[in-house]
Amino acid sequence: MKIIETALNGLLLLEPVVFADERGEFCETFNARRFAALIGREVSFVQDNRSHSRPNVLRGLHYQHTHPQGKLVQVTQGAVWDVAVDLRRASPCFGQWHGVTLSAENRRQLWIPEGFAHGFLALQDGAEFCYKVSDYWHAGDEYCIRWDDPALGIDWPLAQPPVLSDKDRQGLNFADAPMF
Ligand SMILES: Cc1cn([C@H]2C[C@H](O)[C@@H](COP(=O)(O)OP(=O)(O)O[C@H]3O[C@@H](C)C(=O)[C@@H](O)[C@H]3O)O2)c(=O)[nH]c1=O
Predict the structure, then answer these.
(1) Where is this site: Participates in a stacking interaction with the thymidine ring of dTDP-4-oxo-6-deoxyglucose (predicted)?
(2) Which residue stretches of the chain are H helix?
(3) Which residues carry out catalysis?
(4) Interatomic CA distance for residues 130 and 19, integer angstroms
């Protein structure tokens, strides 16, 4: 597993080592011991999630506040442009975002620690998105920050307005959202 630091403190891009042979290929997508060594602490993942999104679907920017979730995310079909926003007031990167393309082809994973909001845009072929989370889903603790809040200025690679859920159409402004 190769690790690439991003501009945001604690937000890490991971590249699994892929073993290819005449049958196809193999890689470990999660190894608890190695992951703890990479990020410097134990994380206990309690839920695995999978979503499928049609092209131009945008989900986000989501987080839980009382039950924050660290998320280890990857794409198993298609591609997304994935975004994390640092909501940790004490962080030197508070309020900053980072975007990266995750695809079945590049096999990259993004580790998004607790204290970030997260979202993604499904690119041209749509995407199957798989992720592990470090706390359970708490419906009443979910928050959504507007994907297009000018205060964040996220430069989404959009050719047309995205397809959104009702919930995501009613996201909060960054300034009104609870922080960490
Ligand atoms: C997130 C979640 C949703 N659900 C249900 C609620 C709802 O009926 C249906 C779809 O939920 P949502 O519209 O919230 O799904 P979605 O918009 O895909 O939500 C996800 O977005 C990305 C960006 C994240 O970072 C995730 O943490 C999560 O918030 O699935 C669960 O049963 N468990 C869960 O953990």
Answers:
(1) 137
(2) 32-39, 166-169
(3) 62, 131
(4) 21
CB-CB contact of 65 with 55 (8 Å): no
Counting the structural domains of the chain, the total is: 1
pLDDT digits (tens, 9 = 90+) for 9-59: 999 999 999 999 999 999 999 999 999 999 999 999 999 999 999 999 999
Reference 73, options 103, 96, 42; nearest CA is 103
Q: What's the burial of 175, exposed, middle or buried (CB within 10 Å: 0-12/13-18/19+)?
A: exposed
CATH number of the domain within which 146 lies: 2.60.120.10
ipTM of this complex prediction, to 2 decimal places:
0.99
Inside any domain, residue 29: no
Instruction: Quote the CA–CA distance of 40 and 22 in Å, as a whole number.
Output: 36
- Tell me the residue range of the domain where 159 lies: 45-176
How many angstroms does the Cα of residue 137 sit away from the middle of ligand 1?
8
Q: Is the CB of 51 under 6 A from ligand 1?
A: yes
Nearest to 128, CA basis, from 73, 62, 46? 73
Distances from the Cα of 103 to the Cα of 7, 74, 83, 160, angstroms = 20, 7, 14, 21
Please state the atom number of ligand 1 nearest to the C-alpha of residue 120. Answer: 23
53-98 pLDDT, tens digit each: 999 999 999 999 999 999 999 999 999 999 999 999 999 999 999 9
Q: Is residue 12 part of a domain?
A: no
